[in-house]
Specification:
Low-confidence stretches: 252-260
CATH topology of the largest domain: Heat Shock Protein 90
CATH class of the largest domain: Alpha Beta
Number of strands: 14
Strand order of the largest sheet: 3-4-5-9-6-7-8
Strand content: 15-25%
Order of helices and strands: HHHEEEHHEEHHHEEEEHEEEHEHEH
Length: 347
Amino acid sequence: MNNKEKGIRIRTQIIRDVVHHPNDISSHIANIFNITPQAVYNHIKRLEKEGYITSTGRGKGKRYTLGVVREYGIKVPLSEGLSEDVVWRNSFAFIFEGLEENIIDICHYGFTEMVNNVIDHSGGENVHLHIYRNKEKVTMFVMDDGEGIFKRIKRLCSLEDERHAIMELSKGKLTTDPENHTGEGIFFTSRMFDEFEIESKGLNYSHYDQNKFDFLFDSELEVEEMGTMVVMVIDITSKRLIRDVFDAYTEDLKDEGTSQFNKTVIPVKLAIYGNEKLVSRSQAKRLLTRVEKFKHVIFDFEDISTVGQAFADEIFRVYANKNNDIVLIPLNMNEDVNRMVQRALGN
């Protein structure tokens, strides 16, 4: 172990143990690594400067505590009986101390949902977890070494390709294990965070809160043996509530006294492959996959310059006439797109 690696280990140990040794952290760390208290003090000063720890008092009365900047990462074997709640509680809960309750709730929801997906679906051997908090935001990484989420969905749901799998994920209610999962976890998690990304096998799916629609990119990120990586980011001053996110996509069933996830927004842009135009009925049918699971479906035509008559007709006349109980709503249409949709509607 070289000096750089040893320094990282010392500073990691300081951050890990300062909660239990606020008054004697220097001597405690010196005993562990067989170094002088002065050497430990140099590391403490660096951590104070970077915001990882803070201190009060002077001399023998000096007391150290965790600062606002907090970070931790671990590699966890995907063994039988692994519980996402236990991992959160034992390894990461300290990172969120002092934050507003709504931020803690959202981060706990996102972390446990994504780790549970890895445990149940990835087919991997390990999951790498890393959470970083600074003065502005919390960033969480969940990375496994499994098959890859888009490849798995394509294979088990008999879809055309991985890009089709991404489009279905963006709608919600997609699961490869309907007996044990509702398919709502990824959808709602992506709407709770300011930034949400899934990176897998050369493709990147991104949902940013400030944007009206989702993005699909070809990715050049290469991480050896990576199956899927999920990145979640939220501003620590956000006022977003889990309840508000659910309410935006659910409907109260007053007669039954329950709520149901039955609304979705489909970014039509995700149906485009390369430079192709949306002109055919087969393209429309691909976009309509699993739409019957919802009662209110919004088709977002943002950034769509034109559509063909057959494409619009398949959605807004043929499918609509066969499914009178589903409300289909087109939004953000330019003049050309609106003309085709109105024609399909018979207006």
